[in-house]
Amino acid sequence: MRKLALFLAATAVTISAPAMAQSTGERILRGVLDRVLGPEQQQVEEEAELVTAEPSAMEAALNHERRAEDRVRDQYRHPAQTLDFFRIEPGMTVVDYMPAGGWYARVIIPYLGRSGTYIGLNPELHPELTGYWDMYRNASSRIPADARQWVGNDGARVFGLNTDDELDNWEGVADRVTIFREIHNMRRFGWFHDSMVAIRHLLKDDGLLGVVQHRARANAPISYVLGDHGYQREQDVVALMSAYGFELVERSQINANPSDPADWEIGPWQLPPGYNGAPEGSAERARRAEIGESDRMTLLFRKVQ
In 3D, which of 274, 119, 143 has the Cα closest to residue 203? Predict the structure, then answer.
């Protein structure tokens, strides 16, 4: 063994020599490794090193500099684990319901890659909803334009749709649909029916729907979970999805937060990052920071006929 170590050290010196000597040294070293490890094992280890050296598509998406401000919320939202739980893979077609400011889009679009397709789906809005809500109008032009601001030209093809658009040409195109913290808005603004019908239309047979939603206590009063307070009871979300032809496949506690009492007077917006009603520098703000973001259910459903 000592002789082998000395021999390897000698060949290492040879490898650092000029080009011709380096080539000879490499051949000698390869011959030694073939005898010690076997050529197949050596190839496996070399390939493993190459795989380790290249970041995964998810790592590249999460660590990109454009997410510098987003990254602080990863500890609460667990994007890699959540998208993995939803069984989303590069190359898929994914519908992202109400992408808003693009927090998840900045992960999903690059992660899907050039062979993937990202579709942002927004609800039809009543004319009285203006201001903040204007970002959800004219999705066919707005979402692709927003995506270029979010991720440049990286990643998947991007399309935008509103639920009242003509969707016949989009029937059955989606492998996955995601709804991140929007069930309460779907209910309080009357979007739920039209949105779920559109989602069923877009999703392939046996396609999967992933839901993350602020979670109310199981015994929370009905008056608290109709939508205005943000929180929803998990059993109600499962029942609503069942009514629209989606069976529960699996639950996850990826985004659970047992420190959240889930009974805030206004809703989860009193927690980070909004801190509604807790001025900067106050003891109450510090208390809420310790709690973190809201407790959330993470559910996976399958479209059934």
Answer: 119
